[in-house]
Amino acid sequence: MSFGKSISIARKRQDMTQDDLSQKINYSRESVAKYENGTRKMPKEIYPHVIQGVDDPELYFQSWQETTGFVSIPFFNGDNIDQHPASLAFLVKKETDEALEQLEITCWSKPARSKTDDEREQMKQVLIELLDSAASMINLVACICREYKFSMKDIFRAWNVSLKIRKFNK
Q: Which fold has domain 3-68?
């Protein structure tokens, strides 16, 4: 599916018209329509404005993939995923337990340059488990935002402020 089509679907999920979005991003409705139907390529510099204007949890995931390629957290919408907060909370616990177990059995005392091929493969497995855990957590955040009609943008903004207060980032 094209990114323009993803924007259209997300906009409709948020009960927005093309006119509503165009007013939020200060572009014409006609431009929004052309971006959505693919007759005009959306300039990269307006991606953040469009994505934040729509403020749809699933669109954030799709935009991460669109802008970074494979280095992104996917939106969990597969056949084995129940998009209910309780189900995703259970998944978070399961994936986090698996990641913590991998962290405990991994040798941390040797520097990377001294590790054997088997130990390096084990470290890759740790990374996969950590990504599974992180992805389940971010999907739970998105699910709760959608369920409670919280703005994911506002939640991330508040979280970033808390990170700065705790001096986790600058």
A: 434 Repressor (Amino-terminal Domain) (1.10.260)
